[in-house]
Amino acid sequence: MHQVAMKRLASSLGWTTLLVLTAQSAQSDPVEYQCFDRSTRRPVAASLVDLSTPEVSCEPTTLKTPSVPTPELESSAKLDRPPADPEVSTGPSPYVDITPDPESVNLFVRNNPLSARRALNLARGAATRRNGGLRVYRPGICMYGSATNNPCLLHAGPEGFEFKIPGGTPGWEQAGNPPALTTRILVAADGRALLQSDQSETVIP
């Protein structure tokens, strides 16, 4: 009888430990998931569930490569760009006099992983909206990856996350073309607010 009671106690403690570890993991790490096409049941997108926010979204796993855009389409893309948000500053950057340091950027990202993920998503969406949407514009593939060792993330610190995002018409990167423009986005250090947005038609090498 005593052995049965001990086994039940050990089993109960084991389940308790598993639940605690699962809860701790859920609080610290984003949860990966996939989205599927209803008709083919093939995975079409992948994303992360950020448990610190109520938002859940899917990002395409592959970018469509359309036919080579005509001058008319490129002209239309420029005309379709919405005006810049008047409530968002255009600068100057708080990092204007600071030389980019990849090690300090990665350290800040590692110490603030959820903020870095939010900032990346917010910056990508802001650049896409500013340039007319995915119908006419694609940000660089770096904006669909991790914030760690990300060439689009130049600065990260108490002043915020600063991205320089190459972009162009759909398929520009897959075709091996240079970006048509570079968009600078500054996101608050908690990853929740867009602070600055400006861009240049001249690509910065």
Your description of this structure?
The chain is α+β, with helices and mostly antiparallel strands and 205 residues long. Helices cover 32% and strands 22% of the residues. Strands 4, 5, 6, 7 and 8 form a 5-stranded antiparallel beta sheet that branches. The N and C termini lie far apart (76 Å).
State the main characteristics.
205 residues, alpha+beta, 2 domains, 5-stranded antiparallel sheet, 3-stranded antiparallel sheet, 32% helix, 22% strand
Summary of the model, kept short:
With 205 residues, the protein is α+β, with helices and mostly antiparallel strands. Helices cover 32% and strands 22% of the residues.
Layout: helices, strands, pairs:
Blueprint lengths: L1 H27 L2 E6 L6 E7 L9 E2 L10 H10 L21 H10 L1 H18 L7 E2 L13 E5 L2 E9 L12 E7 L6 E7 L5
Antiparallel strand pairs: 1-2, 2-3, 4-6, 5-6, 6-7, 7-8
What can be said about the biggest beta sheet? Answer: 5 strands, antiparallel
Ranges with pLDDT <50 over ≥5 residues?
13-33, 46-83
Q: Which radius of gyration do the C-alpha atoms yield? A: 22 Å
Give the N-terminus to C-terminus distance in angstroms. Answer: 76 Å
